[in-house]
Amino acid sequence: MTDSRIHCGLLPLKKAAEEKAQARRDAASASFKSMLKEQGDITFNSRWSKVKESLRDDLRYKSMKHEDREFLFNEYISELKAAEHAAERETRAKRDEQEKLW
């Protein structure tokens, strides 16, 4: 068998392994964010340096690479901020609508 045939046979295996690894990382990331959501006391004003101590014993915390934890936390905080801003806009719009009725 030539090198090109061997190489072509390995590419699908390598791609499948990479896809499986990515799926595991995605699942771990989703699980980590679920853990953050379950905390209940994390708000858009929370800081990683203050929160991480309370999470250290959770397996979902331990399953993430050190460098990914803070990144995912900050991503979660950004999502909370976006939701807060959306709620504020909705409240303002309702108030403006009510003022038009008076």
Quick structural overview:
The chain has four helices and no strands. The chain has 102 residues and is mostly helical. The protein has one domain (30-101): Arc Repressor Mutant, subunit A (Orthogonal Bundle), CATH 1.10.10.
Q: In words, what does this structure look like?
A:
This protein is mostly helical and 102 residues long. The chain has a single domain (30-101), classed as Orthogonal Bundle (Arc Repressor Mutant, subunit A). It has helices spanning 3-39, 48-55, 59-62, 66-101. The mean pLDDT is 89.
Topology readout:
Blueprint: H1 3-39, H2 48-55, H3 59-62, H4 66-101
Helix pairs in contact: 1-4
InterPro entries: FF_domain (IPR002713), FF_domain_sf (IPR036517), TCRG1-like (IPR045148)
GO molecular function: RNA polymerase binding; transcription coregulator activity
Keywords: Repeat
